[in-house]
User: Fold this.
Amino acid sequence: MHAMQYEITLPADYDMGIIRERVATRGHLLDDFPGLGLKAYLVRERGDASPVNQYAPFYLWDTPAGMNSFLWGPGFQGIVNDFGRPVVQHWPGLSYEEGPASGSVPGTATRRRAPLGEGVPPGEAVADAVARHARAARREGVVASALAIDPRHWELLTFTLWADTEPPSVGAEGPGGAEGPVGEGERFRVLHLSAPGRGRLGAGRQW
Assistant:
């Protein structure tokens, strides 16, 4: 599994209805894309718990060939043509879990970053983070959750899809590598979910 995201930050007065229409008319094109586990079409809107307008799709790939095929094919070129070439962030996957609400259509997503921590062997720290991620993914309202890592900065990334438009905010162990509230992190609205290979993402640790 490989996680990937690019963020397109738009002007403060940008009509986000344009993005919604784009997703409504084009989102289905990746519903059967080879090698794609899932793609969540995400937006943040200025004034709605966000300082910016942003289109920020998040991908989980079940094959490297699928990711490469998208990046070097017409799909990503359409983004480049319309918005310029964005920075594409990507992370090796550590763990994937389906949640109690796995059968629901997600309304919200959260993205959380946390340092892996120093003074502990990386293998032990990652194994602990994966165990905590598995527990946190069982929280009510979780559709699915992925844990990935940036080994350049030793930073964990947790991406969680929620069934409700607002994830829980009660104090509990977060679905990442560090303690924190459930639902903590940057929040996005999910406009569409393409998930042709979701069942191939597996369950639990990715090695």
Q: What stands out?
A: The first strand starts at residue 2 and ends at 6.
